[in-house]
Structures are given as structure tokens and as C-alpha cells.
Specification:
Pfam families: Cyt-b5. This is Cytochrome b5 heme-binding domain-containing protein. The chain has a single domain, classed as Flavocytochrome B2, Chain A, domain 1 (Roll). The protein contains 2 helices and 7 strands. A 5-stranded mixed sheet has the order 1-7-3-2-6. The chain has a two-stranded antiparallel ribbon with strand order 4-5. The chain starts with a strand and ends with a strand.
């Protein structure tokens, strides 16, 4: 089975709105945050699902990357 590769355009479709799952990318990995209560509606502390958030999680998040280990990985992220 091949792993799904997302670019920004594809990732943006998974914004947690209108029944879509909520995905975020961090350091080249795409995570499904749909099951995280804090991400309901595709928003979490001003951040939006469907985006690449490496700088946010490394520079602004109080929990850092440790929460990523609990999330399902749905693919890889590559810039356009």
C-alpha cells in the first residue's frame, strides 16, 4: 500500500469543516486530529486544520511534539 502524499492544496481540503476530517502537517508528516476534542470544528487556539504547523508546534505550543505520538498518521507532506 502506498502512503498518501499531501501538498498544501490537498491538505487544505481536510480542514475539519462540513464533515471533512481535520488533518495537520508537522515536519513532513500528516496527522489526523479529528478525534481530538480540542480540534473540534478544525480550530485549536487560533490554528486551523488543513495547514502545515511545524513552526507553531515548535515555537508556540506548550506541549510541543509529544502529543503527536498519540495521533494517527495519514500520510506525508511535501511543499508544492
Amino acid at each position: 500500500m502506498s502512503e498518501t502524499v499531501f501538498n498544501q492544496t490537498e491538505l487544505a481540503k481536510f480542514n475539519g469543516q462540513d464533515g471533512q476530517p481535520a488533518y495537520v502537517a508537522v515536519d513532513g508528516v500528516v496527522y489526523d486530529v479529528s478525534g481530538v476534542e480540542a480540534w473540534q470544528g478544525g480550530k485549536h487556539h487560533g490554528n486551523l486544520a488543513g495547514n502545515e504547523l511545524t513552526s507553531v508546534i515548535d515555537g508556540q505550543s506548550p506541549h510541543g511534539r509529544k502529543v503527536l505520538a498519540k495521533l494517527p498518521v495519514v500520510g506525508k507532506y511535501q511543499d508544492d
